[in-house]
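Page 47, continued from p. 46.
Same chain as before, 264 aa.
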Amino acid sequence: MMVLRYGNQMIVIDAGLMFPDEELLGIDIMVPDISFLIENASQVKAFLLTHGHEDHIGGLPFVLPALMHVPVYGTRYTLGLVKSKLEEHGLLEQAKLVTVKARQVEQIGDFRVEFIHVTHSQDEAMALADLVVVMNHGRIEQTATAREVFNKPASSFVARFIGGHNVLPAAVARARGDGAFVAIRADRMSVQASASGEVGASSISGVTRSVEYLGSTVQVGIEVIGLEPMSAVVPEARFDAAPVRPGQPVVLSWRPEDVHVLGH
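Result:
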């Protein structure tokens, strides 16, 4: 459990429990001390649940009875797990549960919170943020919204760190601007067999090294001499219409408007 306070308003992030170790004989579970929240109950505006593991939601049935006026935000999957716990304790009908989705933004009092999907060992896990801060060995590389960071990475480090981009020298991409490197989203690139495509100002030749089926899309890994590995993520239907195979020479192309010049 973590409490953020701004002025006379507070939001609570997660409400988990802990299991005792061998030194705590006779104790089944440990739940957060919420005496501070009870003393300032009128200031508590929301519980925000990041995901459904016990150390993040398990304490809610023991915390919520003293703060039943406070809404609980979480994804459908997380709240599904919460509902069974609240029903077991006779709290479900009184609880105020608010379902959220990835990229949803909620204004909770003075707090603006965006729910950002993250990879975790449980479905629909979320990070909570207003802005995303990307750091490189203690130095801030970029501060922006999640969408801006992905669409307009500030540097080659950010583009590589968040993934989903090809980073290549600006001269290779024939890009205008002062930056030495550019980023092009992998899902904005096209790939064709070299026999059916010509190398132009917005394309480069290479060799297919991998083809990975991702469901509605196919990711094609491409090796280009002198550059770091590149990739193109294309819709399944488009790939099926003009498939490529590992070892096959290909042409990787992009639109000039999809080239993002990176800072120094």
